[in-house]
Design brief:
about 0% strand, elongated, single chain, about 80% helix
Length: about 150
């Protein structure tokens, strides 16, 4: 029976999607880190005061949060497309709602996957924890790097 939780195909789909979304997320975070580093070097070289640096840092953190949200949305859409393709959900709207709900580990949409594909929802929640952990760690490191820059200015 295809889609049985103990069937290797269910695990194969889930683990493949986890690997894909983590690779996408890591790529996005590395690009953000490179851009952030260039901005930090420019600020350091210009020896700007806190009244200039603080708004730059606020804007950078806000932009980073927005871009990470877009990444999470793309990753949820990938899971949703898989659910539709596998027949685990019937509607694109339900698929994206279920996926965002699972990826965020909220789990309150009331939607469930068809038949034996339910294990994939749990795997998506696990993926979401990893992805949000990567995002949180990156935002923390970004703020820490800029805090060092700001603290040297006082």
């Amino acid at each position: 029976m295809i889609g049985d939780p103990l069937e290797p195909g269910n695990w194969t789909w889930g683990l493949s999607l986890i690997a894909l979304t983590i690779a996408i997320h890591a790529t996005g975070v590395v690009v953000l880190a490179l851009v952030s580093f260039r901005i930090r070097v420019r600020i350091a070289n210009r020896r700007l005061g806190p009244r200039y640096v603080i708004p730059i840092v606020i804007g950078l953190v806000a932009a980073t949060g927005l871009l990470l949200t877009v990444l999470h949305g793309i990753e949820a859409a990938i899971w949703a497309a898989a659910y539709l393709w596998l027949g685990a959900l019937d509607s694109p709207l339900d698929a994206i709602l279920y996926s965002v709900d699972s990826l965020s580990t909220r789990g309150a949409s009331g939607l469930t996957l068809q038949g034996d594909w339910r294990l994939m929802g749990a795997l998506e929640a696990f993926d979401g924890m990893l992805l949000f952990g990567i995002s949180t760690a990156y935002v923390f490191s970004l703020m820490q790097a800029y805090w060092l820059l700001l603290s040297r200015r006082h």
